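Record 1 of the preview.
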Amino acid sequence: MGTFFLKPFAGQKIQRAVYEKSDQLYRIQFNELTYNPFTGKARITDVKLQADTARRRQLGKEAPDLIFEGNMPEISVQGFQLFSWLWGKKLSVEAIVLNQFDLRLTQFPNTKPDEPEVQKTPYEMLNKQFEHVKIGRIQGNNWTVKQVDRRTKKVRTLSVQKLSWKVDDLLIDEKGHLDTTRLWYAKAIEVNLDSLVLPNQDLSASVQVKKIQLSTANKRLQIEGLGSIPSYPRMEYVRRTGNTSYTKAVVNHIELAGLDLSKYWLQKKVKVEVVTVEGGLVNAFEVRSRSSKMDGPRKPFPHQLYQQLPFQLDIDSVKVRQVDIVYDELNPKTNQTGNVNFRRIKGVIVSLSNDSLRKTNVCKADFQASFMGVSSLQTHFTFDMRSPRGQYTCAAELATLDLRVLKSTFKPLALMDIETGIVDRFQFRFSGDQVKTSGSGTLLYHDLKIKILKPDEKKGFKIRDLFTFAANKVLMYESNPMPKKEVRQGKISYERIPGESFFGILWRSIRSCLSDSALKT
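->
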């Protein structure tokens, strides 16, 4: 009772307004438009928004670079005070619900000349139509979003599944931006999604997320199943991309507590008190190649990538628990892979920021791990967050280790088998940047005996008896210190080649210290 079917009148007006306001680029269609002025309930069904691609070409440089299209079964509105809008320019609505929106976005190259962007508040953008906007709740349920990026030669597609969101108590007026109890004019914002896939520019890898939950009221963001996933198996990835390194990383759970987004809108600043990272695996793989040119471009380190974020991100601390790192390296001479691993990593990172005006530019990280699953490793890093060269330091101490656990590492990579050997303690410290590392370490060990190998088609490896004898008796120290001798220090010196990952540089720098400690000069 009291419901008016408005499509023949208001419907045509809405369609004409969309068509004319978009410079004839967009058309909107819907099946049914009803409104009950006594209850304030309104309903629009089978909504379709379409873009005219031919018209976009006609607009030339005036065409927008982002096009929206989509279908929605229903838009429902509650408590809509029509007459307050018509006579008082005040938009007041209790609730707007947008169900099952299938949204499609297409991003084209920017054809407009770069002009200084004028920042306007939402009120400044709307005050010609509305003096006051108050909406109790805006809610989107079970959306699907697909964005096609055509700005590069390879077309990228971003995919979001099962997106739901809610905005509570939205108030836009002349003084709304001064209300510190609101974020983006709302008392609370919630976002939930069940799947996100974001490919990189060359489609060689993608960022994938299983689940995201955001609550601005609780200042909390939770992410489940965050991964950086290459598009191909590792050897195929190396062949297709021309890179010598491959990294796959998956984190089971990430939680951001004390998340402050209040300054993002106008200042592009985000503040986080604590980030918790729990459970995960980083698998880094490289193909050994010293034939690469030494003067080529080098991939930025993780802290250099952090500096390049398009917004300021300040994190007081990051707590890491139960993360594993596995580093694999393929030796083309043996066509076999050796690895080292760090299990059950836990630790804390403090003062992680890309704010150029921050008092301290040093980020510190302390970690504990189980090296090869058997020996305790304590590691301390510092990262210069303002260094264009990616400067950092690394210091560590390794407890007692039976070197025979490294058989699977040294056989394929160094053509060496460890027969006996015990590390009593290993301490090292070095500094580095995106080009080289330098430092020193002390490896205390005893009873070291090795076998020198060569590849063998039938057996895999064959012992080189003469070289083995020479290595153990002439070229290598059996212990450090030797009887009645001083403790020897090993030198760390390594020059990075283009394409090497951060993990690869760390391992090879440490390996240079091991060699310098054990070999006679």
